[in-house]
Design a protein that fits this description.
Layout: E1 5-9, H1 20-34, E2 40-44, E3 50-54, H2 60-67, E4 75-82, H3 86-97, E5 104-111, H4 120-137, E6 143-144, E7 151-157, E8 162-165, E9 169-170, E10 182-186, H5 191-202, E11 206-213, H6 224-234, E12 240-247, H7 249-258, H8 264-282, E13 288-289, H9 302-309, E14 316-317, H10 325-335, H11 338-341, H12 363-370, H13 375-384, E15 387-394, E16 397-400, E17 404-405
């Protein structure tokens, strides 16, 4: 009974009504998969929580670190299981609280097992009085403060053992992985698209990644190595992912050859959307997601976003559209993509960037600019040269298959142009 357990709480899943069992099942699966390779005695669900009992030789710190990345977890805690006895509960509460430094404390009890003889308020009163007496015996003047205390002793009365802990560790929140359908993400090497991908995964979407890159094998040239590392970091949140790698320099050269200079970037993005749609349909994805943030760069003015999206037939989601850059960077640091995106690289080929990009293009402007291009041929060219890297997060590490070419199916020819 003295072996610590990990208690995992969720909150948003309570809103799911009759579908709650489905979401809880997905959360259970995520917890189990995240702990692969760590000895686990069992994962139980007493009341409105999961309780993870680790096996012999398991690392508590490693298990907690993995659970911290599980989507759908509101918070978790390293808890002390206690026999169903008030004296034992008081002693355990003291052992949890005594090593901490604080000047005020509170006791918070939740009783999901109504057969336990004491109610929540009575448990808080008895344990609080016991803790205050022991503090005075030890020469400490700490006092009870119910509002914003320095330390809190949490007690959960479950149908099994009582659970006692003094520290809540925030989880990722959101919905469990793979509960909201499939989406394809246009993943650059920068901060924004990786954060946008995470935001959609946090809502339960399963993402495939599509990266467009320029040539250059040396560090700081092609963005391919950065995008691959980003995908390997993001796969930790959904366990499996595909990264489609699309060489784009030859397509850029063709656009530069025939299209007006100020529309180049917008035409690049329209071709990217068309190629991404074919790959998205290959994955049975229902939408695309990008890292666009309104007004951040010239191609992301409102009119330009509308003009570019006109080339798409699938919905285009932009979870960062109204997000401040500082908030984006803070999230990137939280999810482990900031350092990767900070590496030097060329986003496609900078040689082909216009000196004065258009700020207020219309769909008609871009249609006219594309009239000199063989759009279908450019999309087909991009698909023909695309390679696929498959990623898995298992046993606490990321595994990647060797990239392999994919063949653009001729049957999908109707999807190549808008």
């Amino acid at each position: 009974m003295n072996t610590p357990v990990i208690v995992v709480h969720y909150h948003e899943l309570w809103l799911k009504g009759g579908n709650r069992r489905f979401f809880l099942g997905k959360l259970f699966t995520s917890l189990r998969r995240s702990l692969e390779g760590i000895p686990v005695h069992g994962i139980e669900q007493p009341g409105d929580r999961f309780v993870i009992q680790l096996g012999k030789g398991a690392s508590l710190a490693e298990a907690a670190e993995r659970i911290e990345r599980v989507l759908g977890v509101a918070y978790y805690a390293i808890a002390r299981p206690v026999e169903r006895d008030m004296d034992a509960l008081c002693r355990a509460a003291w052992e949890e609280l005594a090593p901490l430094e604080f000047s005020s404390f509170a006791v918070r009890a939740r009783r999901s097992d109504k057969e336990f003889p004491q109610g929540s308020m009575e448990i808080e009163r008895i344990v609080g009085r016991f803790l205050q007496d022991r503090l005075r015996e030890n020469g400490r003047s700490d006092r009870v403060r119910l509002k914003e205390p320095d330390a809190t002793c949490y007690i959960e009365v479950t149908p099994g053992p009582l659970l006692v802990y003094a520290r809540k560790i925030p989880g990722m929140g959101g919905l469990p992985a793979n509960t909201a359908g499939r989406i394809a993400c246009l993943l650059s090497g920068g901060y924004d698209s990786a954060v946008a991908a995470y935001q959609m995964m946090k809502r339960g979407a399963h993402l495939s990644f599509i990266h467009f890159y320029g040539t250059g094998a040396r560090p700081g040239e092609s963005s391919l190595h950065v995008a691959s590392r980003l995908a390997k970091q993001l796969v930790r949140y959904q366990f499996r992912a595909k990264l489609y790698r699309v060489p784009f320099e030859a397509i850029q050269r063709e656009i530069v050859r025939y299209a007006p200079e100020d529309y180049r970037v917008l035409l690049y993005r329209r071709i990217m959307l068309r190629i991404a749609e074919v790959l998205a349909r290959r994955e049975r994805a229902l939408a695309l997601v990008t890292g666009d943030s309104l007004g951040q760069v010239a191609s992301q003015t409102l009119r330009n976003l509308v003009a570019v999206e006109a080339a798409a037939t699938l919905p285009v989601f932009r979870p960062l559209i109204g997000t401040d850059k500082l908030d984006i960077l803070a999230t990137a640091k939280k999810i482990g993509t900031y350092e990767i995106s900070s590496e030097p690289f060329h986003d496609c080929c900078p040689v082909f960037l216009p000196r004065t990009p258009a700020l207020y293009a219309s769909s008609r402007d871009l249609d006219e600019a594309e009239s000199k291009l063989d759009v279908r041929a450019l999309v087909t060219q991009g698909l023909r040269e695309t390679t696929l890297e498959q990623l898995r997060f298992t046993g606490g590490r990321v595994e990647a298959d060797e990239p392999r070419p994919i063949a653009a199916a001729k049957k999908n020819g109707a999807l190549l142009t808008n």
